[in-house]
């Protein structure tokens, strides 16, 4: 089989939560430039609209929708609108996420809850909505959860974030197990260190150089580094993969 057929995403509608910026946007750009219709579903609507317009100006099909993954009502209407304007969502990238930096002893219940609400509760609610519609319509699908290398090997001062990503990893396997019979595959990408709004507090100043030096490949990640993993998991090329994890970190998690 030709690679162009195996990795074909041109008939897919892909909804990317938090797709207005950073890693989510980079993955959406890859998919759109390969012919997928992409939905940038983000709480920051203006930014998502600007990103969708940029994709359209390159010839891609993109729609921005305001979505807070903490709101069940907004999740339902985001899928309704995606379906009405672009077609039924066959690939979900559960990418919206936030981080909070604090010493574990000082971490407030509010900060803990806010990280869990977006990274775990939100990801689960969006996956559930996507899967319910796929099961209802007897459509196969692919759900890609964006976890982190910190799910396995935490660093200091990000206890809530690391725990949330470990929960998302276990959720990946739980959902994969339950939904395999519906031909819904659920897999996970674990990025290492990429410069985005989320990592800015960690990478600003000397942080970027330090993290690059701790990475065997000697640099931080850029959007393009995720293109292969996302094309694999979004397409039929991963047809027999579910419950799997793909780490994209320049070797960071194996240590220098
Ligand atoms: P980012 O801040 O650029 O992107 C996060 C996006 O999520 C933003 O567009 C933001 O508006 C959106 N968002 C936040 N809360 C939301 C909510 N309640 N509902 C909907 N959208 C919401 O940061 P990023 O680094 O691109 O993060 C994307 C994902 O990648 C996150 O899940 C993050 O944990 C994960 N990740 C990032 C790195 C990295 O090095 N940057 C590493 C591992 C994992």
Structural features, described:
This protein has 256 residues and is α/β, with parallel strands linked by helices. The chain has a single domain (3-247), classed as NAD(P)-binding Rossmann-like Domain (Rossmann fold, 3-Layer(aba) Sandwich). 44% of the residues lie in helices and 15% in strands. The protein is built from nine helices and seven strands, in the order H-E-H-E-H-E-H-E-H-E-H-E-H-H-H-E. Strands 3-2-1-4-5-6-7 form a seven-stranded parallel β-sheet, sandwiched between helices. Strand 4, helix 5 (109-137) and strand 5 form a beta-alpha-beta unit. Helix 4 (72-85) runs parallel beside helix 5. The N and C termini lie far apart (38 Å). The mean pLDDT is 98. Nicotinamide-adenine-dinucleotide binds at residues 17-18, 20-24, 42-44, 67-70, 95-98, 118, 122, 146, 148, 191, 193-194, 196-199.
